[in-house]
């Protein structure tokens, strides 16, 4: 079983609130990713990181921001949540190159 | 814009039957093709990472083939069991200079095994 964790698993929050979705991995992987996925749809990459102090935007535009101060930790922040942010957010990590990605259990976010 | 198509979208199969489904991806700038299994209430888990044209991989009763020239991969399940019920995702990695070697995902094939 992969050692990658996400909290919270479920979050229901009101419009305008600031939220941080946590992601941690204990595998020492340099590369980490955040995906957004709506039911029945593809995973879309919103952020990724090559290592500490490296963050890049993915192919799907997102109002969220990320940070990578420690190898094992890659939190995602929404400064002001909106109903359009309602989705599932998956965190993943890999050794890099074409290696497989290891996924966390996901956070289901609902913004009311 | 790179596109990965999976078919069918969903599939109902009787327990014990064999089945297969398709992943289509761009035939240029191929770098790698991934297959993942995503069971309900769990995390996606990698099944195969394929990099060479003609590659065949096998894990238990599940196998996959790869044709990079024509841009498709097949996933086969022999003798389906209820625990094979899941959504199967494929993802393409381009080797193009501006791709950043990120995975482009298909929407998945949802497999339901009927006992």
Question: Could you explain how this protein is built, in words?
Answer:
The complex is a heterodimer of chains A (112) and B (115). Chain A is mainly β. Chain A is 0% helix and 45% strand. Chain A has strands at residues 4-7, 10-13, 19-25, 31-37, 44-49, 56-57, 65-66, 76-78, 87-94, 102-103, 107-111. Chain B has 115 residues and is mainly beta. Chain B is globular and about 45 Å long. The model of chain B has no long low-confidence stretch (mean pLDDT 95).
Task: Describe the structure in brief.
The complex is a heterodimer of chains A (about 110) and B (about 120). Helix content of chain A is about 0%, strand content about 45%. Chain A has strands at about 5, 10-15, 20-25, 30-35, 45-50, 55, 65, 75-80, 85-95, 100-105, 105-110.
Low-confidence stretches of chain B: none
Provide the residue-averaged pLDDT of chain A. 94
Radius of gyration of chain B: 14 Å
Shape of chain B: globular
What is the succession of H and E elements of chain A? EEEEEEEEEEE
Structural class of chain B: mainly beta
Following the backbone from N to C, one meets helices and strands of chain B in this order, namely: EEEEEEEEEEE
Q: What oligomeric assembly is this protein in?
A: heterodimer
Tell me how many strands of chain B there are.
11
- The N- and C-terminal alpha carbons of chain A lie at a distance of 34 Å
Radius of gyration of chain A: 13 Å
The largest interface is: A-B, 23 and 24 residues
Termini gap of chain B: 41 Å
Helix count from the secondary structure assignment of chain B: 0
Question: What about the largest sheet of chain B?
Answer: 6 strands, mixed
Number of strands of chain A: 11
The amount of beta strand of chain A, in percent, is: 35-45%
As a percent range, the share of strand residues of chain B is over 45%
- Globular, elongated, flat, extended or rod-shaped: what is the shape of chain A? globular
Note poorly predicted spans of chain A. none
Number of helices of chain A: 0
